[in-house]
Amino acid sequence: MRAVQFDRYGDVDVLEVREVPRPQAREGRVVVAVRAASVNPGEAAIREGLMAERWPSDFPSGEGNDFAGVVAEVGDGVSGLAPGDEVIGWTDERASHAEYVAVPSEHLAPKPAALPWEVAGSLFVAPLAGWAAVEAVSPGPGETVVVAGATGGVGGTAVQLVVHQSARAIGLASERNHDWLRSRGVVPVAYGDGVEERIRAAAPDGVDAFVDAFGGGYVELAVERLGVAPRRVSTVIDFAAAARYDGVVTTGSSQVVSAALLERLAELVVAGTVEIPIERVYPLDQVRDAYRQLADRHTRGKIVLVP
Predict the structure, then answer these.
(1) Cα dist. 110→76, 98, 153, 197 in Å?
(2) Are residues 17 and 79 in the same domain?
(3) 134 and 219 share one domain
(4) Which tens digit of pLDDT belongs to each residue from 234-254?
(5) What 8-state DSSP symbol labels residue 250?
(6) What spatial distance separates the first Cα and last Cα of the chain, rounded to whole Å?
(7) Which domain holds residue 41?
(8) CATH (domain of 67)
(9) What would the pLDDT profile of 71-100 be if each residue is shown by its tens digit?
(10) Can the peptide bond before residue 60 be classed as cis, meaning omega within 30 degrees of 0?
């Protein structure tokens, strides 16, 4: 089978699509034929060596966490799943950017028939991180929550979940994405110079909570200048800033994930409560191009690979 691998830390040029042995369905595990798997900023940071102390790589290293596909084989001890079942899942072994992936059966949830493959293959890393970030700041009805990076994979889900919880959502994004935010019930605010003043104008009664899905100083903005209590600030990217302010939350997808939660999120997408926009779909052989586009940081929603 074909799979993405790299032999050393570096930029996208270290990524290669290779022929490797297909994984086996050992006891308690399921082999899935991958139909779609998204790309994520954290994967790029790991490949570049920026997370080597926290998540070191063994070379050759695979890549990819979330995926959707069709069950190809089940191992001994697996119940409730059979070849041909359509599933959503995740791997903790950096292995979903491939034609097949093997995972524990508890890492799989049924894929609703109405859910497009490219959306199903994007649900674990970014949307669940958005879920965790919103859950961490606990928005209440009528409260005002600012989301930075409000149309990316994490922030785009977070801002819609804020609306779903009857809070007032302010989304920081480029102006080209403001119409989409308005269509989801979000108050759009342009990022960049003067953003603090624009947030204050949009929230004259103050900001109750802040979700940072972008980095670059938003934790400081929330705590020091907007007066948000650190325990009501969450970030999925700026861990250094979180360490400076006692109480800022850094909960991510891996700390909240379960098959049941993945299934619940899929149901919200099918119902139209949450939209996961797909910016572009690339064939597996163009994995380098996919990560180049991701690095621009102007994506609305997700970039997806298909084997």
Answers:
(1) 20, 20, 22, 45
(2) yes
(3) yes
(4) 999 899 999 999 999 998 777
(5) -
(6) 10
(7) 2-124+257-306
(8) 3.90.180.10
(9) 999 999 999 999 999 999 999 999 999 999
(10) yes
- The pLDDT, as a whole number, for residue 254 is 73
**Cα 248 to Cα 136: distance, rounded to the nearest angstrom:** 9
Q: What is the CATH number of the domain that holds 147?
A: 3.40.50.720
Average pLDDT, the chain: 95
Count of domains for the chain: 2
Summarize the confidence of residues 191-206 as an average pLDDT: 96
Note the pTM of the prediction, 2 decimals.
Answer: 0.90
Q: Phi/psi at 33 (nearest 5 deg)?
A: -80, 115
Q: Are residues 36 and 109 in the same domain?
A: yes
- Euclidean distance between CA atoms 290 and 181, whole angstroms: 24
User: Are residues 130 and 118 both part of a single domain?
Assistant: no
Q: Helical H runs in 165-258?
A: 178-183, 195-202, 218-220, 239-244, 253-256
Confidence band, pLDDT 50/70/90 cuts, at residue 167: very high
